[in-house]
Amino acid sequence: MLLLLRSSALRNLLRTSAFFLFFGTVLMMATTLLEGTFRAFREVRHEEELKFLYFNNETGTDHFIVPNIIHLIRFNKTEFSFVDYICTQAAFRNHRPDHFYIHTDSPGGKFRGKYWELIERDLELRSRIRILPLEPPSEIYGQQLNPEWRLYHGGDIARIRTMMKYGGIYLDNDVYVIQNLDKYRKFEIAINWDEGQFLGTQVIIANRKARFLPLWLDSYREYHPEIWYYNAGERPTVEILYKHPELVHRVKVQFGADFDLSYNLYTYKEFDWRALDTIHLMINHRHYMDPYYNVTPFFDENIVKNYPYPFGGMAREMVAASGMENFIDKKI
């Protein structure tokens, strides 16, 4: 009897030992696997951080390193205007992005109005649009944004964060794309920086790991709410790019951010806008910059038919290319 008890106890001990040996082996394998995974993650992250350490932003690379995604940010803009429509069509038809990401605080991600409905009817364009929720920032590094300029200063911050999250091509809503922008997708970051001026934020083409982006965002630790363009343009130019111009591919003139170029769209009939890659329409500034503003305070598909200045031709091209005229006289 005693022998049977000892034999049973021995079997139980062996079973228990086998279980713990098996469990220990599994645990050791899992630990090894996790350590390998974390090591690989650290190596990938380190590799990404070093990715642009010696990158040449003058020559770029021989392949695309920026995703072919156009980002638009629409804060407090639930309705698409004619100009919004024209610029969206120009970006789509002249550049041909894989996707549009529209970042918006519009309730439910819904837009309204005749021109949005025209976009909805353009099935090829609409299939490339993703609408992503985004609230305008109200503070940065514990500093409240100027309430009067929250949507503007918040938009400046949001575009940096969007580029850091996704990479791609950021466009202001009133930027008209004239040429394909693929040549800029071979640089770490391409940004407008005209001679003798601060950088322009209307067009940003960047890899999400571009070294300049976190430095730019970090420069907001000294936020000046009372100065319109200090943090968006002046401070990063003076504090970062004057010292390290190699961090960006400097685009002069071609992004059409200079005031005089925009002014020509509404005043100079012989202006050669096709020589540019993009141009900022400055549509919200026409009331003080366009001497003929009172004659045409707004644009639509009918007004641009006979508008004699360059913007008229630009708009007419997109009206025709989009097939919009097929719907103009129809109830949408």
From TrEMBL:
<dbReference type="Pfam" id="PF04488">
    <property type="entry name" value="Gly_transf_sug"/>
</dbReference>
<keyword id="KW-0808">Transferase</keyword>
<keyword id="KW-1133">Transmembrane helix</keyword>
<keyword id="KW-0472">Membrane</keyword>
<protein>
    <submittedName>
        <fullName>Sulfotransferase sult</fullName>
    </submittedName>
</protein>
<feature type="transmembrane region" description="Helical">
    <location>
        <begin position="12"/>
        <end position="34"/>
    </location>
</feature>
<dbReference type="InterPro" id="IPR029044">
    <property type="entry name" value="Nucleotide-diphossugar_trans"/>
</dbReference>
<dbReference type="GO" id="GO:0016740">
    <property type="term" value="F:transferase activity"/>
</dbReference>
<dbReference type="InterPro" id="IPR007577">
    <property type="entry name" value="GlycoTrfase_DXD_sugar-bd_CS"/>
</dbReference>
<keyword id="KW-0812">Transmembrane</keyword>
